Amino acid sequence: MPAPQKTASDTVFLGFTFFMGCELTGSYLDDDIDVVVSGVPFDLSTTERPGARLAPDAIRQASTHLAWEVNRWPWDFNVFDQLRVVDCGNLRFDPTAREQMNTQLRLHAGHLLEAQKVMLTLGGDHSITLPLLREYAKKHDSISLIHFDAHTDTEMEPDRISNHGTVFYEAVKEGLLDPERSVQIGIRTDYVRDSHRFRVLDAAWLMDHNPAEIISEIRRVVGNNPAYLTFDIDCLDPAFAPGTGTPVIGGLTTGLALKIIRGLVGCNLIGMDIVEVSPPFDHSEITALAAASLSLEFLYVLAAGRKAR
Question: Which of 57, 63, 156, 229 has the most CB within a 10 Å radius?
Fold first, then answer.
């Protein structure tokens, strides 16, 4: 596959920033395109600090720091020689209209999934995952979730409006996910354990197990089921991701998160989103760079899996 037409350095000097310097295109349904990067600048569902609507562009900007490396360490190939990745920009909607965002995102995702594209979606708060899962559920009979987060996002209180903390309660209620074949990683806040059906690898459990054991358990739970990867940046400890709306100490290092994601090569990954980066609370692009790096790692995992077939 051809490498991107522009490099990150080119786009910086030209005054445009696309994810990893990939071409910006409106023709994202072309047959030779493998992965489409989309931004969803929405944060009306946050319950604490807002700002995630600014994240897609911040992640793109931070990704320019990664583009100089021809073969990203520790991989032995250039992902853009294996996959054609394009950036279609940010979804357009009234930022004050949640239902309009849901509708527009579902239409966008529906077109991409029908055209057999892999989606890499830059949020936005975690509520953007629900309309995405609704479209994925049309395509797949059963979906596993690989969910990195400090919170389970399975809250639901009577008469409380749905928000970024209720996403997976609603997803299970709607039958979009197979919770028994789904795993939540890095959890370190309270949740109702009696009714919780996801396999939880909480932050304390992670600290007591090595990366190989963690990866093995994820793979055991998910198996070969189609698996959607969602990464809430607050899964990382605030030392590694200060720019987020609901920081919780005691989380993962960026190194451990990268190692776990690398261990998913060969899993049946169908898409990824990365959410809850809040640039107003970031420092020196630490959080945005982490999000960009994790997103790029997903692309390498995807390409490595295809190479191994």
Answer: 63
Q: Residue 267 belongs to what domain range?
A: 8-308
- Average pLDDT over the chain reads 91
pLDDT in tens, 260-273: 999 999 999 999 99
> What is the token pair recorded at 208?
């007591």
Q: Is residue 3 part of a domain?
A: no
Does residue 211 sit within a domain?
yes
- Whether 204 is in a domain gets the answer yes
pTM above threshold 0.85: yes
Whether residue 221 is contained in a domain is answered as yes
| Residue type, position 286, single letter | I
The first and second tokens of residue 207, run together, are 């600290």
- Measured N-to-C along each axis, helices 98-114 and 129-139 cross at an angle, to the nearest 10 degrees, of 30
What is the C-alpha R_g of the chain? Answer: 18
Cβ 138 vs Cβ 270: under 8 Å: no
Residue 263 sits in a domain whose CATH number is 3.40.800.10
Contact, 106 vs 131, CB < 8 A? yes
* 126-165 tens-digit pLDDT: 999 999 999 999 999 999 999 999 999 888 765 566 777 7
Using DSSP's 3-state secondary structure scheme, residue 1 falls into coil
- Beta-carbon count within 10 A of 210 CB: 11
* Cβ atoms < 10 Å from Cβ of 292: 26
- For the chain, the domain total comes to 1
